């Protein structure tokens, strides 16, 4: 993959990973438009393109770690202390358990969808359809969450809520279904406030992205194939997605503190319809 191609995807990944608009959908649509502009066919993505997408996700993962480093250190310290004292009463001590359980349910849900999701990389019109579904999930989760009675512990994650959000993250393996959108929406429907739901959503992404970063190269790629990749482009893409992603999560958290996600629902509907019309009837 060329540097320009990867750079465009890196910027798109950084801008959309944390917004509830599906970064995977934007990568598929952007990459497809780039291929058309360069006279290339929309064939199934090769291993280099899939691996590059994983590396770009890894870049935005580092952005999450840097942004929430104080929270992460606090959680780790609380868990270590709890293991020593055998007292897991504090919320911070329980959180690693909830994140692990949520990740397990994500894997259980997402694994059967693996092959289907890989094929969708060359089907931007189908991705557009799932993007429209994301819009409906965002819209109605905001509508319904306003009717859910907010209790005193609404900002607390429980085991039941972690399973629900983990399942939502697993379903979001399909390109077009926003990971952050599905998990934040699930959190809202479970009675969490937006900030708590978003923070948990971003923390939950850490284990699954780390896992996929190891799983795909080890099980899918050969050493000779990996060495043939354009590592200059991939490395540049990693740092660009990390930097753009850091500022995106920073300002998105500020946005959620004041506004709802309905505007992103409208955006998903527009982009989804445009993708379906363009790739089915125009190109």
Question: What is the β-strand count?
Answer: 0
SSE pattern: HHHHHHHHHHHHH
Structural class: mainly alpha
| Poorly predicted residue ranges | none
Mean pLDDT: 86
Number of domains: 1
Largest sheet properties? none
State the share of residues found in helices, binned by percent: over 70%
Q: What is the molecular shape? A: globular
Number of helices: 13
Looking at this protein, list some descriptive labels.
283 residues, mainly alpha, 13 helices, globular
What does this structure look like?
This protein is mainly alpha-helical and 283 residues long. It has one domain. 77% of the residues lie in helices and 0% in strands. It contains 13 helices and no strands. The longest helix has 27 residues, at 194-220. It is globular. The mean pLDDT is 86.
Q: How would you summarize what this structure contains?
A:
This protein has 283 residues and is mostly helical. It is built from 13 helices and no strands.
Write the layout of secondary structure elements.
Elements: H1 3-16, H2 23-37, H3 47-67, H4 69-85, H5 91-110, H6 114-119, H7 124-145, H8 159-171, H9 179-189, H10 194-220, H11 223-227, H12 231-256, H13 262-282
């Amino acid at each position: 993959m060329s540097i320009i191609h990867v750079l465009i995807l890196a910027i798109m990944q950084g801008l959309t990973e944390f917004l509830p608009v599906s970064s995977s959908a934007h990568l598929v649509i952007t990459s497809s438009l780039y291929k058309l502009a360069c006279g290339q066919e929309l064939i199934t993505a090769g291993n280099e393109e899939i691996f590059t997408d994983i590396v770009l996700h890894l870049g935005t993962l580092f952005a999450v770690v840097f942004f929430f480093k104080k929270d992460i250190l606090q959680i780790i310290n609380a868990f270590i202390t709890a293991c020593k004292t055998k007292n897991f009463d504090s919320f911070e001590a329980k959180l690693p358990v909830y994140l692990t359980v949520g990740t397990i349910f994500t894997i259980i849900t997402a694994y059967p969808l693996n092959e289907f999701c890989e094929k969708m990389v060359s089907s931007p019109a189908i991705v557009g359809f799932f993007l429209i579904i994301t819009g409906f999930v965002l819209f109605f989760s905001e509508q319904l969450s306003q009717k859910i009675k907010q209790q005193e512990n609404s900002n607390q994650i429980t085991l039941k809520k972690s399973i629900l959000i983990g399942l939502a993250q697993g379903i979001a393996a399909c390109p077009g279904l926003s990971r952050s959108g599905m998990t934040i929406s699930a959190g809202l429907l479970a009675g969490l406030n937006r900030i708590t739901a978003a923070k948990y959503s971003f923390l939950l992404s850490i284990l699954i992205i780390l896992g996929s970063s190891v799983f795909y190269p080890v099980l899918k790629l050969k050493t000779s194939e990996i060495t043939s990749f354009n590592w200059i482009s991939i490395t540049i893409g990693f740092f660009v997605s990390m930097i753009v992603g850091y500022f995106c999560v920073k300002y998105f958290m500020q946005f959620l503190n004041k506004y709802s996600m309905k505007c992103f629902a409208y955006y998903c509907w527009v982009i989804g319809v445009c993708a379906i019309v363009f790739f089915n009837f125009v190109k």
